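In the current project phase, we have settled on a layout for protein records. One protein thus recorded is set out beneath this paragraph:
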Amino acid sequence: MASITIPVGSAPGGAVEVPLPKLRASDFLRWSVDHKIIGVQYMVTALFFFLVGGTLAMLVRWELLTPNLDVVQTGSQYNTLFTSHGIVMIFLWIIPMMAGFGNYLVPLMLGAKDMAFPWLNAFAFWLIPPAGILMIGSMLVGAPEGGWTMYPPLSTLFSGDGQTLAALSVHLLGISSILGAINFIVTIMNMRPQGMGYGQMPLFIWAILATSLIVVMATPFLAGALTLLLLDRMAGTAFFDATKGGDPMLWQNVFWFYSHPAVYIMVLPGMGILSDVLAVHARKSVFGYKFIAGSSMGIGIIGFLVWAHHMFTSIAPVWRIPFMITSMIIAVPTGVKIFSWLGTLWGGKIHFTSAMLFALGFLSMFVIGGISGVMLGAIPFDVHVHDTYFVVSHLHFVLYGGSVFGIYAGLYHWFPKISGRMLNERLGKIHFWLTYVGFFFTFFPMHLAGMLGMPRRVAVYAPEFQGINTLVSLASFLLGISTFILVWNLIVSVRNGKVAGANPWRALSLEWATTSPPPATNFINDPVPAEDPYGYGTEAATVYLDEIDRRFGPPAEGIGMARPAKPSVPAAVPASGD
């Protein structure tokens, strides 16, 4: 087993040898209450379902290359493709992946040894694999056709047994999210070390806290709606059947009361990742720390007042105005973040690492998604483009251009901490440019198609839209190819990547104040947080980082933003890399 020698005290020769974990693939296939193993289990599981959902997306775009049915034989089969794609990408990729980052990083960033409830943490993860099996099974047995929104009567009267399995899958995933959120809230509120008040927490922690509060308050509504849906399908009730006295609008209200805040469940952790990555890779203190932290909580509150803007074409006109106003208001805290991030970049010493490139990609693409969101918040425009490809474009600029770009930035930034190895930067930059170009030309032209009237959720479309669809499909194939570059980089680097050292980015937050990967208890001694987790360029930060170098050894030269080792600094014995 590899080990590292940690100096203890100031006396010459005082040191302790600490074993570093040597993890095998089998370690991640077993029950564990170690938050680090659970975090990686979340991430690997989510990446698998990302490939599943991406394959379904490629089939959708292959079908849309021409106006005729080519890949599928019926419209029902096409309905299954986009329904399964949407559910997998939202509930089995983005949400669990963000939970994986939270599980791995929150205790480390807080200086804690584990989550508040380790057993509950493991249980929350192990609900995901059976939920994923149910979802995959749903595609094989009377596949679901109701879209990821599962509107009745599509989801009650016109879908097979696969719709029931899909609803059960999302039910399990909702329970997992609630249990995980409770754990995050208790951990953040009660396990901060001495010297770390709320004003010293990394902004990723603030984002996870806001996200967890949304999950706890919103997800039970989805659970209730899914329970009623399952009763309608399996027990003969008629909660949503208008012919028997039910109300299909009940589903829309309850579903969107969860699902609009759910957008922020997927985006807020990405915003937290962005705050950390931009500050570290620009070597600049975060501009407007309190405003970014407060805006996360503001988004969490206002997000519950916006749901009916998804229903402008189905609610009474008198109710449209209030929800148009709240839809405009929620752009304010998001704008606060955007301008604070730009302030952080302004005058910084920017290092264009792969993590930084994806963070800048998030910033640029999310702004486009935010602008189109404000457009959709305006009643006349929304009525015009409702259920067209303009909405598809907006959704993906927010959830792919935002959440997925944020996930990529986080992977390149924290992979050294998780594995002890660096991802290949050359492959990372190729991955970024293929993703950026492929994404933009996949989804930006959809704005035009939507404004010209192309409806979403159709496989057979008017011939005049073929040119746009051909461009979009070819770009989507490029986007799909880019994903395999990431997967290859992850697989190769976890064994053969350059050894990272404890703190290759010379960052100030606590997760970097221990070995990479961390030992079983996370920290050798009780961790002491830096005065300011983003106080780059100050004398206190220099002293703090020199102490990290003294304890764990400086990173190898040429890695990230690491300084060359100084002869006067007693470097610790590096890990062997086994």
